[in-house]
Structures are given as structure tokens and as C-alpha cells.
TrEMBL record:
Compartments reported by the entry: Cytoplasm
Endonuclease/exonuclease/phosphatase domain boundaries: 216-461
PANTHER family found in the cross-reference section: CARBON CATABOLITE REPRESSOR PROTEIN 4, ENDONUCLEASE_EXONUCLEASE_PHOSPHATASE DOMAIN-CONTAINING PROTEIN
PROSITE patterns assigned: DPCK
The protein, known as: Dephospho-CoA kinase
Annotated catalysed reactions: 3'-dephospho-CoA + ATP = ADP + CoA + H(+)
Gene: coaE
GO MF terms held by the record: dephospho-CoA kinase activity
Keyword annotations of the record: ATP-binding, Coenzyme A biosynthesis, Cytoplasm, Kinase, Nucleotide-binding, Transferase
Membership in a protein family: Belongs to the CoaE family.
Length: 471
């Protein structure tokens, strides 16, 4: 289905999550909503071909003597044989999507239209749907919502919930998430999405061939027992949650051991990653790995070099206390075909000479590897904006320089300025994590993410992100 510039956005979530309420809010704000579940009910009653297919698959008991759909009998059958849900969906869903296509063509102008359904996930979305909004609510509140409207027992409620995808299936890869628990303010989240798509439509009109990326630099803190209750095993899930919630597309990791990366892989199944352990060029020591959303980007080539005089092999550089690396990849944005490079690094924390020479080497290697292609550089540089390494990187007299994304963000900066918290609080004067660009990328937003859970931080650095448009 061709939708032109107007997006058709899926809105989904588990039963009882409150997606219908969210849709009513969108509708009041002028956003047309196609109710897929309502359309499915009408099709089961009125579409002759669908009725015949259901009877052929499930038998004559699927319909009552008066020809109406035997919903209660089918519900009991599907609870007894959950595998039959897929067979029923295979009959109904093509007809629903055809109806959605006709409805979409007839809708008035709007920034976007919504396709409401409980049974779509980012991994299995209907062909017309370009992006997914997931409505999420705590399980206990979902159970209460279902029982309130349907007068079901707890066991019946859980049977219905178990027939649907698990919460992680809805959340992994979702483009937007609306938290709809009792402690959440829903309307501001809806307004934020409305603003995002309104701006997105305007952007498409003027820049229809541009790629937009949310890049993040994320020092996850190495796994060490000395961190006590801040040890990795207590934080890994929350690092993954943070990345998912903010819909990062490409993440430059620092201080990550191999097992930490594989832990994040489990939390982010739609992502690929690459990199090398800095201590042996294989699996030993910390990685400066790059993670990327596989559904959005094709990895063309990748490599790692060391921050040293002999950068193609494992080694220490200058007065560095540790071996340090740069991991880089060339990507192609699948939808637009745009190609670009991403470099990720972690400068030494002690060696002043090493940081200075590392900055020079990074600029030289970016020019050598990427040429005139668009570039994103992420990292923990262990240097503040006024320090020599950063001044070298952004030197306006140097044609090889990079540009700090915070300085050119069209919507300014949001969040703390310092990026180090030491697991306690923002540390004044510790702005050491950056995203830089080169060769044309436009920066729309720049953010330092300072969320906590139960007064704990996911890591001892605040992740920093930027929304970047590739020319």
C-alpha cells in the first residue's frame, strides 16, 4: 500500500493496557484511528469468504444457526488450543488489512493515521504500518482493567493474557512507548508523539531523501565486584531498558566486557554488534563496541584500531595506563540507501599525552577511512570541553575537525551538562562523554539521560544521545 507522505502508525499493547483510551485521546486531537479489532468482528459477521474459510478450518460450530459468529465457542476453543490463534489470524488479517487500505485512502488530511490492534508487534507488523506505538501498563493494572470491564475471574483473565504476545515482544523495537500505569501522566506522552510526527511530516516534505538516526554514547561501567550493589548483574536489565525506551538506533559502548555485551544482546534482540577486546584483539579486556538496529541499517564493513603509534595491532599508546581502541563501521540506512560511518572510542583516563595524541590520530584515521562521507563519532573522551584533546578535535582551523553535536542541535540541549555521576549524583565539571559529527549531518536534538530507578543509576555515566539527520 502506498501512503505518500502521511504515515500509517500502528498502536498496540497487551489486552487491558489501555490502548483504546490512548486512541480516544489521539482521536480528540484530530488523528483518525482505524480499529482493527472492531473491523475483524464486522468481517467475521459479514464477509462471506471469511465465514466460509472459518467454517472450513474450525467446523460449523464456529457460527450459530442464525449465521452470527459464535464468539463464545471460538473463545473456548482458542483457550484450549492456543496454536489455533495463528490459523484464525491467517484467515481474518488479510481481510482486515484490505479494509484498512480502503479506510486510509478515504481519511481526511492529518499528520498521521493510527492502526489500533492488540496483535501486532514491531517484529510482525502489517505491511501498511511504518512505525509502532506500544502502550505499556503493569500486569496488575491490566488484570484489574480486564476484570472491571469483562467480569472475568482471575484464571480466565490470565488465560486471555497468555494468548497474546509477551510484553517484551511489544516493547522490543517499538518506535514509541506510552507508559499507561496509574503513576504515569499520559497526555504529555501523547502530545510528544503528536509533535514528533507533525515535525516528521514537515521534515519529509523538505527532506524526503534524508535518513534520521538516534545515536547514543553509553559508558556502561565494567563489571567489577568492588561496585557492590552497583555491580553489573544488578544494572544490566536497566541499561537495556534505557536504550529501548529512548529508541536508540546506534549505540557506542565503552568499558563493556564481552559478557556485558551479550547481556545487552538479550535485552535488545533486534540489535547487532561488533568490536574487539582491547587486550588481545579478540575477546579479552574491555570493548568499545558498536550496537545497531538491524531492521534499520545494513553493516557494510567494520574494523578496530588501537590508539597508539602502531595502531593496527594490539598495544599501549604513549603514556596510557590501558590499551585503548577505536571501533568503526560503515552503515547503509536501508530505507533511504544513505551511507555513513560511525566511530566509537574511549580515551585513556590517566595519560595526558595519550589523550592528546589519540585526538590527533582519530582525526587522521577518520579522514583516511571515511573521506568525505558523513561521520558520527561517539565516545568517553575523559576530557572536558576546554581540555586539550577536545580542543584538538573541534579546532576550527583544522579541516579534519569534527563538530560537537550539542553545539549545533536545532532544539538545543536537554538534561544535565556533566555526564559523569559516579553512581551518586551529577559531578560538576565532568562533561566527558560526547557525540561529534563531520561532513554534513544535521543535529535535531541533543540529550543527557539522567534517569534513575529506586534512586540507583544504570551506570556511573549518563548516556548522551543525539537525533541526527544524514544528508
Amino acid at each position: 500500500m502506498t501512503t505518500g507522505l502521511k504515515p500509517f502508525i500502528g498502536i498496540t499493547g497487551g489486552i487491558g493496557s489501555g490502548k483504546s483510551t490512548i486512541c480516544r485521546i489521539f482521536s480528540c486531537l484530530g488523528i483518525p484511528v482505524f480499529e482493527a479489532d472492531k473491523a475483524a468482528r464486522e468481517i467475521c459477521e459479514q464477509d462471506t469468504a471469511v465465514k466460509e474459510a472459518i467454517i472450513a478450518e474450525f467446523g460449523p460450530k464456529a457460527y450459530l444457526p442464525d449465521g452470527s459468529y459464535n464468539r463464545a465457542w471460538m473463545k473456548g476453543l482458542l483457550q484450549k488450543y492456543p496454536g489455533d490463534v495463528a490459523h484464525l489470524n491467517a484467515i481474518i488479517h488479510p481481510a482486515v488489512r484490505q479494509k484498512a487500505t480502503e479506510w486510509f485512502a478515504a481519511t481526511p488530511d492529518a499528520p498521521f493515521c493510527l492502526y489500533e490492534s492488540a496483535l501486532i508487534t514491531p517484529q510482525k507488523k502489517p505491511e501498511p504500518i511504518s512505525q509502532i506505538i506500544t502502550v505499556d501498563a503493569p500486569l496488575s493494572e491490566r488484570i484489574q482493567n480486564i476484570q472491571k470491564r469483562s467480569n472475568m475471574s482471575y484464571m480466565e483473565t490470565m488465560q486471555i493474557i497468555d494468548l497474546q504476545p509477551k510484553p517484551k515482544n511489544y516493547l522490543w523495537g517499538a518506535d514509541f512507548v506510552i507508559q499507561n500505569g496509574k503513576n504515569n501522566q499520559v497526555f504529555p506522552q501523547v502530545i510528544q508523539i503528536l509533535k514528533a510526527f507533525t515535525c516528521f511530516l514537515l521534515l519529509l516534505v523538505g527532506q524526503s531523501a534524508s535518513a534520521q538516526i538516534k545515536a547514543m554514547t553509553f559508558n556502561v561501567r565494567l563489571d567489577t565486584k568492588s561496585d557492590g550493589l552497583n555491580q553489573w548483574k544488578y544494572r544490566s536489565k536497566h541499561c537495556g531498558e534505557l536504550i529501548r525506551y529512548h529508541q536508540a538506533d546506534i549505540i557506542g559502548l565503552q568499558e563493556a566486557f564481552l559478557h556485558q555485551i551479550t547481556d545487552l544482546e538479550k535485552e535488545l534482540p533486534g540489535f547487532g554488534w561488533f568490536g574487539k577486546g582491547r587486550d588481545d584483539g579478540k575477546a579479552e579486556g574491555e570493548f568499545s563496541a558498536l550496537m545497531y538496529r538491524k531492521s534499520k541499517f545494513k553493516l557494510i564493513k567494520e574494523s578496530t584500531f588501537w590508539l597508539s603509534d602502531s595502531c593496527d595491532k594490539v598495544g599501549f599508546g604513549w603514556d596510557a595506563a590501558c590499551r585503548r581502541v577505536v571501533t568503526w563501521g560503515q552503515f547503509q540506512e536501508i530505507k533511504t540507501g544513505k551511507k555513513f560511518f560511525v566511530f566509537n572510542t574511549h580515551f585513556d583516563h590517566l595519560g595526558k599525552v595519550a589523550r592528546r595524541e589519540s585526538a590527533k590520530l582519530v582525526l587522521r584515521k577518520i579522514t583516511e577511512i571515511a573521506g568525505k562521507s558523513p561521520v558520527i563519532l561517539t565516545g568517553d573522551f575523559n576530557a572536558t570541553p576546554d581540555d586539550e584533546p577536545i580542543q584538538i578535535l573541534v579546532d576550527p582551523k583544522n579541516p579534519a575537525r569534527v563538530i560537537d553535536t550539542e553545539k549545533i542541535s536545532q532544539n538545543g540541549h536537554y538534561g544535565p551538562y556533566s555526564s559523569f555521576n559516579g553512581f551518586t549524583k551529577e559531578q560538576e565539571g565532568k562533561h566527558i562523554d560526547y557525540l561529534f559529527v563531520k561532513n554534513g549531518p544535521v543535529v535535531l536534538q541533543h540529550t543527557t539521560h539522567s534517569e534513575t530507578w529506586e534512586n540507583k543509576y544504570p551506570t556511573d555515566h549518563f548516556p548522551v544521545s543525539a537525533v541526527i539527520r544524514i544528508p
